[in-house]
């Protein structure tokens, strides 16, 4: 159990490191304030250069956590606190010791690659049931006090940050910031879907009992027998249903080819699986 937890935090650390890299080498040097606490920190750093983006992010996150505890009874998992504080600290370390400069000064390239790297890192964090905190808390407050949907509230907060960005950096840069926010939302969803894609399989075979034992004993997955009747033959048959990872499906297909080459198999992709052996239902 302890080893599993340690791996989770290693993965989260990798995720926030990618986000920090995107911020310090693509977004901040080009004044792209792509929403969130770090977007606010980038704007404040531009107005007062002596303010470190990492330190400002840390202070804002702590203040937001306190506000959430006072006003909305905020309960944050250890992972979320670790991710939000860890991101701020990594940004500070990069600024303090590596003196980052922009990898590219082309605003379009910085927007695209910054969003790609940041989205991949955030997807890794979200996939471990954590988040980087920040303006999600402000969105939650808008939801509670003004009854605005969470999704719309997040967009409203990010839009407000972009509006301030336009006043500080100009409309052109602010539009790139808005593009970055849009790309982040799209890419994060796609990456998380990619992490969680599984194969949904229906099998009709004369060796269904043997195949089910292979799924249970060798692949360590559950499966279900469904009763079916052949439309042409009128005979009853067992239909085996299972949900497997890509690697497990490859092994199963190889096994079925050996025991029953005449088996009939249909395969589909599912992007979220909840329940025993997969993600918990939350």
From TrEMBL:
Residues 221-275 form the DUF2179 domain. Its main location: membrane. The keyword Membrane applies. The keyword Oxidoreductase does not apply. GO terms for cellular component: plasma membrane. Keywords: Cell membrane, Membrane, Transmembrane, Transmembrane helix. Gene3D superfamilies: 3.30.70.120. It is found in: Cell membrane. The chain crosses the membrane at residues 9-28, 40-69, 107-126, 146-167, 173-192. It is a multi-pass membrane protein. This is YitT family protein. It comes from Clostridium chromiireducens.
